[in-house]
Amino acid sequence: MRHLDIATAKPYSVIGLGTWQFGSREWGYGTDYAEGEAGRIVKRARELGITVFDTAEVYGFGRSERILGEALRDSGGTDDVVVASKVFPVMPTAAIVQQRGVASAQRLGVRQIDLYQVHQPNPVVGDSTTMRGMRALRDVGVIDEVGVSNYPLSRWQRAEGALGGARVLSNQVQFSLVSRGPMAEMLPWAQRTGHVVMAWSPLAQGLLSGRYNADHRPSGGVRATNSMFLPENMRAASPLLDLLRDVASVHDATPAQIALAWLVHFPNVVAIPGASSVAQVERNAAAADIVLSGSEHGALTAAAEAFHPTTGLSALPGLVRARR
Boundaries of each NADP-dependent oxidoreductase domain copy (predicted)? Predict the structure, then answer.
């Protein structure tokens, strides 16, 4: 497993584990998954060198934090892993951020959260008060590093200024072959300044796995409302998916592994895919060892840039038809 070349108290693996699905009904995995497979996934992830485990208080209304904390304790504790969680910013004043941070640490069963992130930018409450709460949590040792999530670059920079003398280490954003927004300004800035871009939905909720096509689409859970899986978008994605399969065959890999390898080819990026099984976390971890050539990486980028999906309001009629 490769790690970021950034000064942190614990090493950040380039492939992490996202745990939204732990205890959350949105993914439809059920009680057996939460009570059994989740623990096995965490244990195997650690064995494979994954050190970054990401959760949030809103995932399963705290259940994800509890399940992850218990799984980490059962598989060796938390001294050598990065436990990352997020505060849901309904009203992220300093006092509320402090209270929620303590509550998350208790659910996780840790003395210190290694990376505590603001889950979304609040349109009303400014980061000056939110970061005051984060600073107080750092001062008493409840958290180590501060992060944000879904922030534009300018607000990430302002948040760091509001923290006052300490870095806001990371920004967790949607980043994949089909969501390349961070490449323009955010990623170059992070690379220049020693910050981290954490990529959520690095496989575009499975679109980049190559498992689906216009005639075989996800039928339930979170993916059912994702416009990327509309038949017209699946057909438009065919050239990109075919190229992923071609590159995968050269590396004796899967399309999903190549999509992850494309991401972690960039310095200062941590990809945090979820996993529905031990086998899947094994495949995800192995992606860190795939070294794409410059021509392969460039060809994938070009194929992704040629993909123009129907999204937003234009996708609503298709989503309604799919629901019916």
Answer: 15-304
pTM value? 0.90
Residue 108 Cα distances to 1, 119, 177, angstroms: 25, 17, 32
Q: Please name the residues in contact with 184: beta carbons below 8 A apart, sequence gap of 6 or more.
A: none
Provide the token pair at 218.
Answer: 């996800």
CB 87 within 8 A of CB 101: yes
Q: How does pLDDT run across 57-89, given as a tens digit for each residue?
A: 999 889 999 999 999 999 999 999 999 999 998
Nearest Cα neighbor of 116 from 166, 184, 176 is 166
Residue 166 contacts by C-beta under 8 Å, 6 or more apart in sequence? 135, 138, 146, 160
Catalytic status, residue 59: yes
Question: How far is Cα 120 from Cα 137, in angstroms, rounded to an integer?
Answer: 19
- Residue indicated by tokens 């050190």: 51
Q: Span 247-254, mean pLDDT? A: 97
Q: Give the tens place of pLDDT for each residue, 160-203.
A: 999 988 999 999 999 999 999 999 999 999 999 999 999 999 99
Catalytic residue among 12, 29, 33, 59: 59
At a CB cut-off of 8 Å and minimum separation 6, what does 125 contact?
A: 89, 91, 92, 93
Secondary-structure percent of the chain, ordered helix, strand, coil, rounded to 5: 50, 15, 35
For the record, the structure tokens of 30 come out as 């059920």
- Rounded to a whole number of angstroms, the CA Rg of the chain reads 19
Residue 198 Cα distances to 152, 300, 301, angstroms: 13, 20, 19
